[in-house]
Design goal:
By secondary structure, this protein is α+β, with helices and mostly antiparallel strands. It has helices spanning 46-58, 74-88, 90-96, 131-140, 154-157, 173-180, 184-191; strands at residues 2-7, 34-36, 43-45, 65-69, 110-115, 145-149, 162-168, 201-205, 208-216, 221-226, 232-236, 241-247. The strands form four sheets. Strands 4-5-7-6 form a four-stranded antiparallel beta sheet. The protein has a four-stranded antiparallel beta sheet with strand order 8-9-12-11, with no helix packed on it. The chain has a two-stranded antiparallel sheet with strand order 1-10. Bound molecules: zinc ion (ZN).
Length: 248
């Protein structure tokens, strides 16, 4: 067995962070954690960038898919929000541009993609469901990406459908969300039904087995014991707890 200790700040770190109208980003991502994409001037969280590059290479996208917008600093999100207010008005901006501090783009885990066809709309890029974009969609979950703002989930996400906005949540989470048609808000709720002290979620995906559970954070340090031999990953949910993923 091994003892793992987590600080309260870690609730606000990791690839399962929920950033929406209700839960703002608490800490900006550090400069060491971001990386420019090989495909464009877009910057992303390091792992997100690497996985996206692998996925685009795997589907042979070449220059047909363009990463339009990735990591944005808080200041950039403020500028985009203000520019959209001026250009498109309040109703449009509230629908398509997240409030500064509440944008997934500030996490470095989100990417807006466009089919490479002029003109490319910066706020609402065209990313259809067929062709090379369809190929990207069909593989996205198995690489850890989800289409974050889907039709029918507006009441939960607070954002209109955005078929161009993908969010890295990692494995096996994207596959589970895809199988259940969960948005991130629903998925994190679902995981609280599998607490550390109770029955854990067990999933089998492509010959791999995973064990997942939720642990509520203590006010300062949260401690738990894990099997010593299993690799694991932990992410905060940006609310009040941690999600543990064990590779069995
Ligand atoms: Zn976006």
């Amino acid at each position: 067995m091994k003892v793992v200790a987590l600080s309260r700040e870690q609730v606000h770190q990791g690839n399962l962070l929920l950033v929406n109208k209700k839960y703002p980003l608490q800490y900006p991502i550090s400069p060491e954690q971001i990386r420019p994409s090989e495909y464009s001037a877009v910057i992303l969280e390091r792992k997100t960038a690497l996985v996206l590059e692998t996925l685009l290479t795997t589907i042979g996208s070449g220059s047909s898919i363009v990463p339009v917008s990735g990591f944005r600093t808080h200041k950039e999100q403020v500028e985009i929000y203000d520019a959209s207010l001026k250009e498109h008005g309040e109703a449009f901006t509230r629908k398509y541009v997240a409030l500064p501090g509440h944008s997934e783009h500030e996490t470095g885990l989100a990417i807006d993609l466009a089919l490479n066809r002029e003109p490319i709309d910066f706020i609402r890029p065209y990313f259809p469901r067929d062709g090379i974009c369809g190929r990207f969609r069909s593989k996205a979950a198995s690489y850890g990406f989800i289409e974050r703002y889907q039709e029918g989930k507006e009441d939960l996400t607070g954002i209109a459908p955005e078929p161009w906005h993908f969010r890295y949540v990692g494995l096996p989470h994207a596959s589970i969300m895809d199988a259940h048609s969960f948005c991130l808000e629903e998925y994190l709720d679902y995981l609280t039904e599998y607490p550390y002290e109770g029955r854990h979620l067990e999933v089998h995906i492509e010959n791999k087995s995973f064990e997942i559970f939720y642990l509520r954070a203590e006010s300062e340090v949260t401690k738990l014991t894990l099997p010593g031999h299993l690799p694991y990953q932990v992410s905060g949910d940006n609310q009040d707890g941690f999600i543990f993923t064990l590779w069995r």
